[in-house]
Design goal:
The protein is of the alpha/beta class. The protein has helices at about 15-25, 40-45, 60-70, 95-105, 110-130; strands spanning about 5-10, 30, 50-55, 80-85, 105-110. The longest helix is centred in the C-terminal third of the chain and has 19 residues, at about 110-130.
Length: about 130
């Protein structure tokens, strides 16, 4: 049986590696996307079922990539799970959260709360929403 493919983008090595390891623990085949301009071709060729992004502000490049992913007919169905870094704050930056939501993220969570504890639940939620 083939493992489902999760595309992952991260801009912080430590939390990105934790995310990749956790997805692999959940039996996903993980492909890391380093060039967001290649997100759609990577998603199509790998037959990805989810895109997980872990990043902080500024989110311009990630938001643009999410918009392109959601606008493309071959990838519009792929749920987007965004883990946002709060830069040491207790709560997420509303401006950052709103921009990611407008870009097309399916589920948005704080980096610390989601990666370690709630990733399975958040993935399930992302699949239910889409």
């Amino acid at each position: 049986m083939t493992k489902p493919v999760a595309l992952v983008y991260y801009d912080n090595l430590l939390s990105g590696n934790q995310l990749v390891n956790r997805l692999q623990d959940l039996s996903y085949r993980v492909l890391v996307v380093n060039d967001l301009n290649r997100l759609v071709p990577e998603a199509v060729s790998a037959k990805a079922i989810v895109f997980v992004a872990n990043f902080g502000a500024p989110a311009n490049l990630v938001n643009a990539a999410i918009k392109v992913l959601r606008a493309h007919s071959d990838t519009a169905h792929i749920p987007v799970l965004a883990f946002l870094r709060s830069a040491g704050k207790k709560s997420l930056d509303k401006k950052l959260t709103d921009s990611v939501r407008v870009a097309g993220a399916t589920v948005i969570a704080g980096e610390e709360e989601g990666i370690r504890k709630q990733l399975p639940l958040l993935l399930e939620q992302a699949f239910e929403i889409d």
